[in-house]
Design goal:
Number of strands: 0
Strand content: under 5%
Largest sheet: none
């Protein structure tokens, strides 16, 4: 018989109300359509419009920067005016952005629309995570819901590209029409599913600080700020899998590069889907801080694996990628659980919005990783990432030992 505090209890699923299911279903719908079209973006920008790799990189980096910075304010707006208002605005921007990409034919149009797609992401994602906290009082129920959300996000990432390849290899730009229509459906789903049956209530504005005061509250939260720095580094290290490692393989293996890179994507995706819940079950009694450090340790071990693997040995790349993916499976879902538990209830959206800043690690990874590869070599990059993993663990240890002066939520965990 399961213990009362076990994460894996059917009663927890039964406590998910309609708003929670709206968010979870919306994640699967939106992310499947996103990954159905987005992987083909670079292909048609280069092949059909002759846009250079530097220009495409600038578009994507600007989009990531805008999204990360905008998250600070959109999260606050969701605390002030409600989750649904901000999420619906994000859905409207998504419809315009993705449908626009399908119709665009000039570089400046793609630039504007790709930046818009970066703006909409925190407008939807930060409030959607806050919706789970608004509607589930039990901390362990929320932990399970956030883990299910992460699983569905990756499930969409696994099936989306397969659907995209099946539908439109000859005209990948048209896939963005389908993505735009999907967000119309998502918007209708949100309109009827969020808040009408949910628990969010507009706060007493006299009790909710203004935006500047909210930033000061977050800035003075030493535990949260230490985790933000550590998580920025974590994103930087992890993002090398998508940016710098393919460059290393392409430069060194010639014709086999495409198959090796595709194999790493497959290993990463399958590891997440197959191992997320078994690892969660194995570590459910382990404290969150310790759990995250285990993930960091595995990420560091993977960097050693990348460093020692001969460039022409695909199995070695696959093993190291598997270890890195196990670290991701443990650490990444835990990040959202930690933020949920750190955030005061009336600032939940603001905290999730501010947390978007650590995704800047994804934006910094291709640039800094490329500089290290060009100036030195790949082993310098992997060695630096090992040291950065050690820094992450130290920051997490410091955060755990820091005297906490913020009033946190202490909901029942059973």
């Amino acid at each position: 018989m399961e213990s009362e505090s076990s994460l894996f209890k059917w009663q927890r699923i039964q406590r998910f109300n309609f708003s929670v299911w709206t968010v979870l279903g919306g994640v699967l719908l939106a992310r499947t359509s996103y990954f159905m079209a987005w992987p083909f973006l670079i292909v048609f920008l280069y092949q059909d419009y002759g846009i250079s790799a530097i220009d495409v990189g600038a578009m994507l980096a600007t989009s990531a920067l805008v999204g990360s910075v905008a998250g600070l304010y959109t999260g606050y707006l969701s605390d002030r005016f409600g989750r649904k208002v901000v999420m619906m605005a994000g859905v409207l921007i998504a419809i315009l952005a993705y449908s626009g990409i399908a119709m665009a034919n000039q570089a400046w149009q793609f630039f504007v629309l790709i930046v818009m797609s970066g703006l909409m992401r925190p407008m939807i994602e930060a409030p959607s995570k806050a919706v789970i906290g608004d509607n589930l009082q039990n901390l362990t129920d929320r932990e399970l819901a956030l883990n299910i959300r992460y699983f569905l996000l990756n499930l969409g990432g696994a099936f989306g590209p397969l659907i995209g390849v099946t539908l439109a290899l000859s005209a990948p730009q048209d896939l963005f029409y389908i993505t735009g229509v999907t967000y119309v459906i998502y918007g209708i789903w949100l309109f009827f599913g969020i808040e009408r049956r949910g628990k969010f209530k507009k706060p007493d504005l006299s009790q909710l600080p203004n935006f500047r005061a909210t930033l000061n509250v977050i800035r003075k939260d030493r535990v949260f700020m230490l985790l933000m720095v550590a998580n920025f580094i974590m994103m930087f290290v992890y993002a090398q899998l998508d940016s710098s490692i393919p460059q290393v393989i392409v430069r060194s293996t010639g014709d086999e590069a495409a198959s090796i890179i595709a194999g790493l994507v497959l290993v990463n995706t399958l590891t997440i889907i197959v191992f997320q819940f078994p690892m969660l079950k194995l570590l459910e009694k382990v404290p969150l801080f310790t759990r995250t450090r285990i993930g960091m340790l595995l990420m560091g071990a993977a960097q050693v694996g990348f460093m020692l693997t001969p460039v022409d040995w695909p199995i070695g790349w696959g093993i190291a990628c598997f270890v890195l993916s196990l670290g991701e499976v443990i650490a990444f879902p835990t990040l959202n659980v930690q933020i949920d538990r750190l955030a005061p209830a009336h600032l939940r959206g603001s905290y999730f919005g501010a947390a978007a800043l650590y995704s800047l690690g994804f934006a910094a990874a291709p640039l800094l990783g490329g500089i290290v590869i060009e100036s030195l070599n790949a082993n310098w990059l992997f060695g630096s990432c090992v040291l950065l993993c050690a820094v992450m663990a130290i920051l997490y240890k410091a955060a755990e030992a820091t005297e906490d002066t913020v009033e946190r939520e202490t909901a029942n965990q059973n």
